[in-house]
Amino acid sequence: MRSRMELTITIEEATGREDITFIDLRSPAEYARASIPGSCNIPLLDNAEREKIGLLYHHEGELAARRSALSLAAPRLPALIDAITTAAGENVPVLYCWRGGLRSRSLHLALNLAGVASFRLLGGYRAYRRLVHRRLDNYPLKSKFAVLHGLTGTGKTAVIGKLIEQGAPAVDLEGLARHRGSLFGAVGLDEQPSQKDFEALLLRELDRFNGSDRIVIEGEGRRIGRIHLPNFVAEAMKQGEHFLLTAPLDLRVRRIVKQYLPSLHLEAELAGIREAILSLRCRIGGAAVEQLLGDLSAGRYEAVAGSLCRNYYDRMYGDARPERRPFTAVIDSSNLDRAAIELRALLSAGAPAIKQISTKVRGVENESLRCRPPAGQSAAGVGRTAGIQRSPETDAR
Description:
Elements: E1 8-9, H1 11-14, E2 20-24, H2 28-33, E3 40-41, H3 47-60, H4 62-73, H5 77-88, E4 92-96, H6 102-113, E5 119-121, H7 124-137, E6 144-149, H8 156-165, H9 173-177, H10 195-209, E7 214-218, E8 223-224, E9 227-228, H11 231-239, E10 241-246, H12 249-260, H13 267-278, H14 281-284, H15 286-297, H16 301-316, E11 329-332, H17 336-348, H18 351-362
Parallel strand pairs: 1-5, 2-3, 2-4, 4-5, 6-7, 6-10, 10-11
Antiparallel strand pairs: 8-9
Helix pairs in contact: 3-4, 7-10, 8-17, 12-16, 13-15, 15-16
């Protein structure tokens, strides 16, 4: 029978409130694998202790495991209570563990005995995960996607970042996935989140803007690094309005170097770039790979970026060619602030105005899409590079 002191809340009730703070009582390893976005990890047991209790449960049974866990956690209860109240601040803490079992129940009771109001999340993290899975499987997307395309360095991610700063409906998929969506996409970034964490973050962002006329996103494949996009997102991209960003090659190269190799670059970043270059041997040939590695070792980073653009990246982005896809508009992104303003103006102009622009773009070749061959190289190998890519400059992809 549930104690009258015990206050519980369902995940559906909790996600609709702004006066609560989720407190994850699981071990740091469990928290790292997946958690509720915005939650604070205040573990009842650390990783080693949780493993010890699990073995004890397996070999000696539940009662022995409970007693051992109590002996480990009891001396820390005052500190845990202080940490929870500090993390929650003015909000009400909502405690959760894996299934809403003993860890959250015991600390919830301790908080109540200490006079601290709190909730215990029914079903724990597992209930939240089921909610995310259920909602993404049947997501009622009411908005149309405005999809940005462009060669590497044209500033797609940077423009989206500026729109987000302005409060416009935009979602940075690569930011959520912590990957730039290319062979070099993980260089200089933290490890990617789990698929579960990515889906939780994506759901939160979509819910923020669902119902807006358009949500701006970057054109992606079905996978960003090791993260898979939900099917409905990939399909909505195909059905969206497509915008092409363009910028001169020399500017794109400078942005790429700034993004991938900041002024205080680390050996780990250089090692990641070397590894990615080596994997290109079958695509661009051994001689080109050796030249790239030589330029990288000599610190000729713009030469590396320029060669990769001309000989690898630009040839990959066929979806950025006007002859392959009808773009609603082509936007010069040499100035990222101006590009963001122009995009917002186009989106706010409404469907009739955009339809007129789209008709013009389909019949006009845009000079900024052309790639000039480097000295000593014929145009034949470069003319196909009227594609798209990603750029740096505050993540100017």
